[in-house]
Amino acid sequence: MRIPILKLGNYLLVSIQIELDDKTAVQFQQDLLNMIHKTGSTGVVIDLTSVQMIDSYIARVLGDVVKMSELLGCEVIFTGIQPAVSITLIDLGIGFRNIKTAMNLEQGLEKLKQSLEG
Amino acid sequence: MRIPILKLGNYLLVSIQIELDDKTAVQFQQDLLNMIHKTGSTGVVIDLTSVQMIDSYIARVLGDVVKMSELLGCEVIFTGIQPAVSITLIDLGIGFRNIKTAMNLEQGLEKLKQSLEG
Known about the structure:
Two copies of one chain form a homodimer.
Chain A: E1 5-8, E2 11-15, H1 22-39, E3 43-47, H2 56-71, E4 75-79, H3 83-91, E5 100-102, H4 105-117
Parallel strand pairs in A: 2-3, 3-4, 4-5
Antiparallel strand pairs in A: 1-2
Protein name (chains A, B): RsbT antagonist protein RsbS
InterPro entries (chains A, B): Bact_StressResp_Reg, STAS_dom, STAS_dom_sf
Domain STAS (chains A, B): 1-112
């Protein structure tokens, strides 16, 4: 089970619409980094609108993928974080430090464009 | 197993990155029509870049989804049709009659915009 990654111009779009188990999350991490490398994308929007729950392991994998992508020269924005997910993230003391967010996919793409194309 | 449908402004984006079995294809048909209805989207881009093979049943389901979407007032464009898939479609005598296509997701979105926004 892989999470589809869409290429749109210089950006990648990901919409996580399944319950993320540990294996899928790690597979996604690898797939996304490979795709960034292969396409030379400068930005990624990861949409979490359909993610209702998140645990500490998944939060860490997602947090790591941001740092790893940045090392490749690619900016990541999370969109559509649900109230329950935001509560869990803060309660777990994980948060997404220094991580950019937006309400939805369109606004995430807009934010990336502003940030990367000035 | 469901195919994720992404909402981007007035459009929906779908990238089919798994082997489509009959059940998944029918589920996708239902999901897409529900999503068009729910979001009031005016256009859909269905990217088939990762689809290496297609059979007559799947081709029919995809062809039907275009006609069904049009009934809802929504235009569909297929992108990234692989050479092998195009050969199969023509060999099977199915083709995608009167169906709009484009090379990739970006061009598909561009074509939708031109067609719908003039």
